[in-house]
Design a protein that fits this description.
This protein is an all-alpha fold. It has 15 helices and no strands.
Length: 399
């Protein structure tokens, strides 16, 4: 049971794309809730220090889990195409660094001082996102490689200039460009780096994957018990804290179990074992909650276990619906959010910048209660539609 991915060529698993799409749509939806009034509290983030979680608190961990779930399949495809161990390690490193760069620029945008910098926040974010697209856009076949290199160089230069002239914070404590909390993409980058390196070095050894998951789960508890030596403080908290990388490793572990039974076409035992994993994680969440609570902002062990369980249960349901009963067409409109996820994530930055620059104001009636929720949901779906149109026009990001 230690070589799940080495037998036959892999086929695309539609359910992973769909769960990723659902997660991204939900992420855009909850990120737009700030614009609404009179909506149920359970939809929003729970405040720091509160024991509990709302729907918004389950989206980021779900995305980390999906990153892990898809990782072994993506790496195995590269291996089957002839990539060496070293090439896969470089791929993981460069992809992780790219996410860190994007997260760093976007999180600085959150505290930008428009007066000190001489540039409004929406313009800064737009220039950053445009630079990301120029740098990491997939060159079409037959395109001029020299022109591609030049455009990527221009994108990097643009980011360097933005970082150099950046000014943030409030008077009189104006800050220069610097790491804050890395942002969503940055945190994903650190978790991806740690779990990706482990997965590559494991060489499809299931027991190493189990051991790595156990290590980060225990590390999460040790960290919250304040037992980590201060000498390890140089390690990024997304790794040192255990929880975020633990979420990604939960997905990696689930992928190995899934592929083992899928290769045998044994959907019954596949479902039973994955349900069993979910049950164990729920029990672990219940057992650890009295010690450190259940909270996203605290990245507690109970949050790690419960969100891993919920995301895995969602994946099981979608797998049966999409890959077993062939209902993939039900999700056609949102699928681009799962196949071109990073591009879809950037669309709201352009949307908010467009409305701000053009002075477009959404009527108050569309920001209240159920009507507001429908508006935000339609906005998230529209982002997926725009992503599809951009991909058709030749814009497609690949890290």
């Amino acid at each position: 049971m230690n070589s799940f991915f080495s037998s036959a060529p892999l086929s695309r698993i539609n359910s992973i794309d769909i769960v990723r799409a659902l997660t991204m749509i939900l992420m855009i939806f909850v990120n737009d809730l700030w614009s609404l009034k009179d909506i149920p509290a359970w939809l929003e983030h729970v405040e720091h220090g509160v024991d509990g979680m709302g729907l918004a608190d389950s989206v980021f961990p779900a995305f980390l889990f999906i990153v892990g779930l898809s990782m072994p399949f993506a790496l195995e495809v590269r291996r089957q195409k002839g990539d060496t161990q070293g090439q896969m390690l470089i791929h993981v490193l460069t992809r992780g660094v790219a996410l860190l760069i994007m997260g760093l620029f976007l999180v600085n945008g959150e505290s930008l001082n428009a007066t000190a910098m001489g540039m409004p926040r929406y313009l800064y974010n737009t220039l950053c996102c445009l630079s990301f697209i120029v740098i990491w856009n997939v060159d079409s076949k037959g395109s001029d490689k020299t022109l591609g290199y030049v455009s990527k160089a221009i994108g990097f230069i643009a980011l360097i200039v933005l970082a150099y002239f950046y000014r943030g914070g409030k008077e009189p404590n104006i800050e220069s460009f610097q790491p804050h909390w890395w942002g969503i993409l940055g945190l994903i980058g650190w978790a991806y780096l740690a779990s990706g390196l482990v997965t590559v070095l494991a060489k499809n050894n299931f027991y190493i994957i189990v051991g790595a998951w156990f290590f980060f789960a225990v590390l999460s508890m040790v960290s919250h018990a304040h037992l980590l030596p201060k000498s390890l403080s140089f390690i990024p908290d997304a790794i040192r804290g255990g929880t975020l990388t633990g979420l990604t490793m939960s997905g990696v572990l689930a992928a190995y179990v899934f592929q083992y039974f899928r290769s045998k076409q044994d959907n019954k035992n596949l479902t039973l074992v994955l349900l069993g994993m979910s049950a164990v994680w729920i029990v672990l969440s219940v057992l650890t909650r009295p010690y450190w609570g259940l909270a996203k902002l605290g990245a507690t062990p109970a949050w790690l276990f419960l969100c891993s369980a919920f995301t895995l249960l969602t994946f099981i349901a979608v797998y049966w619906l999409v890959d077993v009963y062939n209902k993939e067409k039900w999700f056609t409109i949102i699928r681009p959010a799962g196949t071109d996820t990073l591009l879809c994530y950037l669309i709201p930055y352009f949307a908010y910048a467009t409305t701000r620059s053009l002075g477009i104001h959404i009527p108050e009636a569309l920001k209240i209660g159920v009507i507001g929720l429908i508006k935000s949901l339609l906005f998230a779906i529209l982002c997926a539609v725009i992503t599809k149109l951009l991909v058709k026009s030749g814009i497609r990001l690949k890290l």
